[in-house]
């Protein structure tokens, strides 16, 4: 989409470190399976909660539920890898939970590593294409941009509530069924505007047009919307951020695709530098090189 998702005012507010609207900031510590609470039938669980089932294995609630059986209600629960090896990548993902925690030591507890891992199935090519170096560079690039957009994974929603009514484009045939002020920025790449919620929801098979609040209440959905933008949208750029990284265009082109109209070509070099600094730090954590073409 050619229309920008989040305003310069919003970006500035995030970088200023304004207090989050929902959920306090905090950090999470990786744990072994035995450290998680035992699952209790009939107890209420929120999305992102992790329990130890009677089989000794751990499960994470992908959707809030009233204590459904994790081995039966697989839409609500997913297996969670927690054998104590938090320094081991989950599945094919090149970032370990320990590395994730190192990148975001003060992150909001809403942004769970397990939620990110659960979201990867929506775009299996993400951070899983090309050489080990390319895969790590793409993961670092995505997380660096996400870090910049959310103040280090602190902000779940857009901070300037006065902007909220702005993101409804009534010229769209479907309008704004959730309300004039319902489509404000949410999630790791601050999805906003009714047409973006519609497009992301259609692509992911989730009705975000009528229920945009899922993006701030369900960690896996939040991560999926960020991956949707990363893998399918070019924004003000000429390619998707995913293609920029796997085809060798460089990190600078991911900046252009996310916020190039406000930051690139000398418009705001400080913001570009902030993204580049995060990318270089994250590639170092992942034990790889940043490659060339870092700036836009």
Could you give a short description of this structure?
The protein has ten helices and three strands.
Provide a descriptive summary of the structure in words:
A three-stranded antiparallel β-sheet has the order 1-2-3, with helices on one face. It has two domains: 1-25 and 87-288, Lysozyme; 31-84, Seminal Fluid Protein  PDC-109 (Domain B) (Ribbon), CATH 2.10.10. The model is unreliable at 1-31 and 83-88 (pLDDT under 50). It has 296 residues and is mainly alpha-helical. Strand 1 (50-52) and strand 2 form a beta hairpin. Helix content is 36%, strand content 4%.
- H and E order: HEEEHHHHHHHHH
Number of strands: 3
CATH architecture descriptor name of the largest domain: Orthogonal Bundle
Overall shape: it is globular
| Distance separating the two termini | 19 Å
Kindly list the characteristics that best describe this protein.
Lysozyme, mainly alpha, 36% helix, disulfide bond, Seminal Fluid Protein  PDC-109 (Domain B), Glycoside hydrolase family 19 protein, three-stranded antiparallel beta sheet, 10 helices, 296 residues
Topology:
Blueprint: H1 8-15, E1 50-52, E2 58-61, E3 77-80, H2 97-103, H3 113-119, H4 132-150, H5 194-204, H6 214-217, H7 219-232, H8 241-246, H9 251-263, H10 269-285
Helix pairs in contact: 3-7, 4-9, 4-10, 5-7, 9-10
């Amino acid at each position: 989409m050619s229309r920008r998702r989040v305003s310069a005012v919003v970006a500035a507010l995030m970088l200023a470190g304004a207090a989050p609207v929902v959920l306090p900031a905090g950090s999470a510590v990786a744990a072994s399976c035995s450290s998680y609470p035992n699952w209790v039938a009939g107890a209420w669980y929120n999305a992102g909660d992790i329990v130890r089932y009677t089989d000794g294995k751990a499960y994470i609630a992908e959707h809030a539920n009233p204590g459904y059986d994790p081995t039966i209600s697989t839409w609500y629960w997913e297996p969670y890898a927690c054998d104590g090896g938090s320094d081991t990548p989950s599945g094919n993902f090149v970032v370990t939970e320990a590395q994730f925690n190192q990148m975001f030591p003060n992150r909001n507890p809403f942004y769970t590593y397990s939620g990110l891992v659960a979201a990867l199935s929506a775009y299996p090519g993400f951070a899983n294409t090309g050489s080990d170096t390319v895969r790590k560079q793409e993961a670092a690039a995505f997380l660096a941009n996400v870090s910049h957009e959310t103040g280090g994974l602190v902000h779940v929603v857009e901070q300037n509530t006065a902007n909220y009514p702005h993101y409804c484009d009534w010229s769209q045939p479907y309008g704004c069924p959730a309300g004039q002020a319902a489509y404000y920025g949410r999630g790791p790449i601050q999805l906003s505007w009714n047409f973006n919620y519609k497009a992301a929801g259609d692509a992911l098979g989730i009705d975000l047009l009528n229920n945009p609040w899922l993006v701030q209440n369900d960690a896996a959905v939040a991560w999926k919307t960020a991956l949707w933008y990363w893998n399918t949208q070019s924004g003000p750029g000429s390619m998707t951020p995913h293609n920029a990284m796997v085809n060798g265009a460089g990190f600078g082109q991911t900046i252009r695709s996310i916020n190039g109209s406000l930051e690139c070509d000398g418009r705001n070099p400080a913001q570009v530098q902030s993204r580049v600094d995060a990318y270089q730090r994250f590639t170092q954590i992942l034990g790889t090189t940043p490659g060339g073409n870092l700036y836009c």
